[in-house]
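For the sake of transparency, this paper describes our internal protein records without simplification. An entry from our holdings is shown next, in its original layout:
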Amino acid sequence: MSKEQVKAILDRVLTWPPERQEDAAKILMLMESQDYSVYRLTDEQVEEVRRRRSDSECATAHARGVQGAPQVVLQAAPGRMKVVSHASAARDLDEIIDWISQGNPIAAARIASGRGSSVLPLQACPT
């Protein structure tokens, strides 16, 4: 995104209702504060993030590696919800985690380690 595009968006924010402007300012200040975090991952922690990401990618490796297999289906017990994970969604999440890790490696590690844990409870839901 160019500086001109950012300026145009910020100019539009100034036309929003005051409470929305305040929300936007809070989000931007939070993002800015993340850039100045005193926390940095050690080499060992970075390696652990990579290992966990690799482990979580095992579930989608088949869908990524085989042409004509665009998804992974997690089967549930009869009468329970079937969870379908598309390979493109897994790739999107990888890219999001990579982007987050540039500014906040701890948050990226937390997301990577919890990946999939919010999906599994869906299998327990009745259909």
